[in-house]
Design goal:
62 residues; 2 helices; single chain; mainly alpha
Length: 62
């Protein structure tokens, strides 16, 4: 059986881009950019993990 790949609607894509843009603006204007970046990462990780995506494989290790 062939899996059907989900394609987001145009409105969903626009909404996602608005979210990305507003998050970058929050980071840019924050008085503590590092704290804001960490917060944004926590939010995205929670969203990804709610879909069963393991985020530890995506982390950059220094």
């Amino acid at each position: 059986m062939k899996e059907t790949q989900y394609m987001p609607t145009e409105k969903e894509m626009i909404n996602n881009l608005i979210d990305y843009y507003s998050n970058l603006q929050r980071i840019k204007t924050s008085t503590d950019s590092q704290k804001e970046v960490e917060y944004q990462i926590r939010l995205v990780k929670a969203k990804l993990e709610s879909f069963g995506i393991i985020t530890s494989n995506l982390d950059i290790n220094k």
